[in-house]
Amino acid sequence: MTFSSSPMENMGAAGPSNDVLDEIFNRTINSRSIFLNRDVLRNDYIPDHILFRDDQISQFGSILAPILRGNKPSNIFLYGKTGTGKTVVARYVTKKLYERILKLNLNTKFLYINTRLASTQYKMLVELGAQLDISLPFTGLSLSEAASRIFDKMKRDGINTIIILDEIDYIVKNYDDNILYEFTRVNNELLNGNFISIIGISNDLKFKEYLDPRVLSGLSEEEMVFPPYTVDELEAILTDRIKTAFRPGVVSESAVKLCASLAASEHGDARRAVDLLRVAGELAEREGSDVVDTDHITKASRSIERDRTYEVIRSLPLHGKLILAAVLAAVLAAPEDINTGRLYSNYTSMARSLGVEPLTQRRISGILSELDVLGVVNAPVVSNGRFGRSKRVKLVVPREVVSRALQEDELISSILK
Fold it and tell me: Distance (Å, rounded) from C-alpha 64 to C-alpha 71?
């Protein structure tokens, strides 16, 4: 990659802005970092030991253990709020199990997909295929054909497969459960005792209500619920991470307590606690501070909340953005809470103006629940007496943040204008 500069930019090359950058870069090179290993504070880090989840690790390991005898384990659903340890326990146990599988020379693979990041069922299959060394085209195949190619590979090579579907509720609520149906039926077609098992991870205890009964009967065998962490547990988790993430004495005790308290107020979210600590450390280092204190935690909390809301909205699929645009339009027209009938009218009008087929009201209700979980809207179900029940929708993030994030999508931007 090359960078070009205009004559005007070259004229100012020795100006004050260059001096500021030199100062920043020199300070970074010459100063000692307060971090020992900041990767310990990343969301994808799997620790060597997991605190306060011994029971879940034991139960999960027991359910999967039959794999070591070449037997199919039960499908499992892991439930719990964000940051309660579902994904890290799943990845920790499967990592340990895979080490044993390699020693026993078993033909078993673990495939991991975050369905929100994959965003569509087809992309999900493309990723699964890639993990099995199958190259699927990015477009052009039907779901059933793409799935068949993956299953053919499993049959041909005699592979036993455990598929971990993180945020499984996202794909079900925003699309349908066709892909899950394909997974549940294929066990009847695999040869020589080979199998596919599903590990579903969800923040939503009610997501199974969206599943077709045929899928539900074949998919839901074992369930585990992960409780939120307490303040004391979050403090212990942070203290444990600090030992390997920071130099000794860098993080004040009061900062740890505030960090744990803020995360506990959001359903005992360990992920948020660790994120807060990492961002606070980065802010302290930029300021040239040798200590991470409560001020840095407070600033990190504001920064994360602002960035998280913006990124959540920006990364929504098209119909999620359309629904949010419909909410925004309704709020601008009248600030009171919006009923789902009025919202659906706005949404269908916007969708058709873009030449997009509107989703059903049931699917819209599911996406509203998703936006509620994400903290973008508040959408409780209220009774309308003899007229039945509906959701009352209220925007709970600043309008300007919603508008700015939606404006980045060219299609949605054309509607908002």
Answer: 9
What is residue 250's predicted lDDT score, i.e. its pLDDT?
A: 97
Q: In the chain, what is the straight-line distance between the N-terminal and C-terminal CA atoms, in Å?
A: 35
Instruction: Count other Cβ atoms within 10 Å, centred on residue 67.
Output: 23
**Cβ atoms of residues 35 and 245 within 8 Å:** yes
Residue 111: name the closest of 54, 49, 183, 61 by CA.
183
Rounded CA-CA distance 60/48 in Å is 17
pLDDT score for 9: 46
Which region holds residue 133: left if phi is over 0, alpha if psi is between -120 and 50, else beta? left
The rounded average pLDDT for each run of 10 residues, N- to C-terminus, in the chain (417 residues) is 44 61 81 93 93 97 96 93 94 96 95 88 93 92 91 90 92 76 77 84 83 78 93 97 97 97 90 96 94 96 84 87 92 77 90 91 87 84 61 86 89 84
Q: Could you say which DSSP state residue 32 is in?
A: P
Please report the pLDDT score of residue 335 as a whole number: 65
Q: Which of 379, 373, 329 is nearest to 350 (CA)?
A: 329
Q: What is the pLDDT of residue 12?
A: 47
Burial call 3-38: b when 16+ CB within 10 Å, e when fewer: eeeeeeeeeeeeeeeeeeeeeeeeeeeeeeebbeeb
Integer CA distances (angstroms), 295 to 169, 223, 241, in order? 37, 41, 20
If we measure between CA atoms, which residue out of 15, 32, 66 comes closest to residue 290?
Answer: 32
CB 189 within 8 A of CB 223: no
Q: If you ran DSSP here, which 8-state letter would residue 210 be given?
A: G
- Residue 386 per-residue DSSP state: G
pLDDT at residue number 182: 83
CA torsion, points 408, 42, 372, 81, in degrees to nearest 10?
170
Distance in angstroms (rounded) separating the CA atoms of residues 376 and 354: 24
283 to 113, 166, 247: CA distances (angstroms): 32, 31, 16
Q: Counting every residue, how long is the chain?
A: 417
